[in-house]
Write a structure and sequence with these properties.
By secondary structure, the protein is α/β, with parallel strands linked by helices. Helix content is 44%, strand content 12%.
Length: 324
């Protein structure tokens, strides 16, 4: 009997090994990130998401390697519930089902265990739709061979999801998850591309990545304080001046529930039926993320946040690979 993927039920995962390793990894980070991993699992936060493109050049595959290292080193509560998810990138040189199967095997080697959830990192529908079906077939074959417990997608809109779902139905392989950029400052995937409605209809769990909008929903940034450098600074300068109604609503709910802004923003994602996967660069951030669990905003409070978010005229830049 095939071993099936069991997703966590606590409504929160951890996306802790992404751009940080891509842009500035230092070996000294290993011990700190191990502490983050240990805390999360002990707290019942057991879904960890990464990708084979997180870590390039000399750091090739480093994110997956660290995640495998941390998983192997952990021994304690919820150990058997750990779910390691990775995304395989549809690089231009990956053209066949076999290429994705080889990529999956390489990821599993770095993770030091079979992949629990293998995902297509993004749809090629926007630029090379002819490439996609063969690559997805590779993911299906990994599942059919028992080399992964579940298959998921990332950055798909409702229209493309329906089409791809038909392919997987023909192959007899279920799609378990779909992750999209989703937060109070990034609602397009749900409102414009219908991903939540289609996921609910098809029985697919929606995962929200970047649920804190690169930190804009943590309350740590304002125009009168130093902003991050590079692209984030440009984005923050455009979004922050338009956030007043949303920030005011978040602050009211912070005071009412005795929570931080980040915890309120994450709980909103949970109340929307998604599984948010916030990043955690250190133990303090992981502990704050965990504070989003164990309570719920009321329906009226969720609606108030929805209305405040709708007043933000400049929101987060959308992922260019997000399909319709």
């Amino acid at each position: 009997m095939r071993e099936q993927l069991i997703l966590p039920t606590m409504g929160c995962g951890t996306w802790a090994w992404g751009n940080r390793l891509l842009w500035g990894y230092q070996p000294s980070m290993d011990q700190e990130l191990q502490q983050v991993f240990n805390f999360c699992v002990t707290s019942g936060i057991t879904l960890f998401d990464t990708g084979d493109s997180y870590g390039t050049g000399r750091l090739s595959g480093r994110s997956e390697s660290l995640l495998g290292q941390f998983s192997q080193a952990y021994a304690g509560r919820h150990q058997q519930e750990i779910v390691l998810a990775t995304k395989l990138a549809p690089y231009p040189w990956r053209l066949t089902a076999g290429s994705m199967k080889r990529a999956g095997a390489a990821s599993a080697k770095r993770l030091q265990r079979p992949i629990d959830l293998v995902q297509m990192h993004w749809s090629t529908a926007n630029y090379a739709p002819w490439q996609e079906k063969r690559l997805l077939r590779g993911l299906a074959e990994l599942y059919e061979a028992g080399q992964v417990k579940g298959v998921g997608l990332s950055n798909y809109g409702g229209q493309r999801l329906r089409e791809v779902h038909r392919w997987f139905q023909d192959w007899g392989v279920p799609i378990r998850t779909l992750q999209v950029q989703y937060s109070l400052l990034s609602t397009d995937p749900v409102l414009k591309y219908d991903v939540k409605a289609v996921c609910d209809e098809l029985g697919i769990q929606l995962i929200a990545y970047s649920p804190l909008a690169l930190g804009l929903l943590t309350g740590k940034y304002s125009l009168d304080k130093p902003l991050p450098k590079g692209l984030r600074r440009r984005v923050f300068r455009q979004v922050l001046p338009n956030m007043a109604p949303l920030q005011s609503c978040l602050q009211e709910l912070m005071a009412l529930h005795q929570k931080t802004m980040a915890q309120v923003a994450l709980n909103w994602c949970i109340c929307k039926g998604t599984m948010p996967i916030p990043g955690a660069k250190n133990l303090t951030q992981a502990q704050e993320n965990a504070g989003a669990l164990g309570w719920h905003l009321s329906a009226a409070e969720v609606e108030a946040l929805d209305q405040a978010a709708a007043q933000v005229t400049k929101t987060m830049v959308q992922n260019p690979f997000q399909s319709r």
